[in-house]
Design brief:
Ammonium transporter fold, 14 helices, mainly alpha
């Protein structure tokens, strides 16, 4: 039984890494070959730190050591300084994974720990400077910012769907994200209920806000295909070590993710809110499971005569 579980875990890890590599290749088509240099630096630093930790603590490691640095590479702009990518990957691996004991012992999505550090420490590189594939030049605007500032898109809907727009390397290729995310869900690599709850609540709440306060909230469809909400829902919010296990708890988890993301997008200073929303809800996830389990136990108690 244990060998079978290890086999399934290895299969799921390989499939997830394969999906990330496909998104990386898609990013290279849109942003150019420098994407591979970003990924190489992130993986080199992250894996090196993992190997040093493994040698010092004498613990087993597997292919999952590539997931965090690959995600970090996909969550930075293509023109991000390579030294910064290395810092972000190292911070993510050490403070997001190793400080909690390494593999299978993490509390937060490790890649987002590193990305949050970069966003707060180097905002000029993470939130104001991107490469626009359409113009072939640097820009300070991305579609999600344009949307929330009430400006017209300079990119067509087709360009936004295929990722030919400025943004983070891995979060702009919307068609690829959706296809790969659904495939991972069908193959049971990720829990399909999490992206379904997150995206469902996000769309419904954004639509309600748009109907009630159109001057403040934005078109829900365009809100869904700009920024990194789709990528976050399938590839970040589904990290099994920081998510609830009970179905009802997953619904609450998705609702919390949607609400926090919308609040930060609509009223906050950052162009996207999924980084903070997932970190916050990772911390709350065990409480949600405990709350649901406690309520279920109370419901099954016999009423005294």
């Amino acid at each position: 039984m244990q060998d079978e579980q290890k086999s399934v875990a290895s299969r799921n890890t390989l499939l997830f890494i394969g999906a990330l590599l496909l998104l990386l290749i898609g990013g290279a088509f849109n942003f150019g070959p420098r994407v591979f240099a970003v990924a190489a630096v992130s993986v080199a630093v992250g894996v090196a730190i993992e190997l040093l930790f493994q040698k010092a603590r004498n613990i087993n490691i597997d292919l999952s050591i590539f997931i965090t640095p690959l995600l970090v590479a996909l969550l930075v702009p293509s023109i991000a300084p390579l030294w910064m990518v290395g810092v972000g990957s190292g911070f993510a691996v050490f403070f997001g994974r190793l400080i909690f004991g390494g593999q299978n012992k993490t509390v937060f999505n490790a890649s987002l720990v590193g990305i949050m550090f970069l966003m707060i420490s180097f905002p000029q590189h993470m939130t104001t400077n991107w490469w626009d594939p359409l113009t072939g030049s640097e820009t300070t605007m991305i579609p999600v910012l344009t949307l929330h500032m009430g400006q017209e898109f300079s990119h067509s809907l087709n360009q936004m769907l295929v990722g030919y727009v400025p943004g983070m390397i891995g979060e702009t290729f919307m068609i690829g994200i959706l296809v790969l995310g659904v495939a991972l869900s069908l193959l049971k690599v990720i829990e399909w209920k999490i992206p379904a709850a997150y995206l469902g609540f996000f769309f419904v709440l954004t639509a309600l806000g748009f109907l009630l306060m159109p001057g403040r909230f934005v078109n829900p469809f365009y809100s869904l295909i700009t920024g990194g909400v789709l990528f976050a829902a399938f590839f970040l919010a589904t990290d099994s070590h920081g998510t609830p296990k009970k179905t009802k708890a997953i619904i609450y988890y998705g609702l919390g993710l949607a609400i926090i993301t919308i609040i930060i997008r609509t009223f906050g200073a950052f162009p996207d809110g999924y980084v903070f929303s997932i970190i916050i809800m990772n911390a709350v996830a065990p409480l949600l499971d405990s709350m649901v389990e406690k309520n279920a136990e109370e419901d099954t108690k016999e009423v005294p005569e």
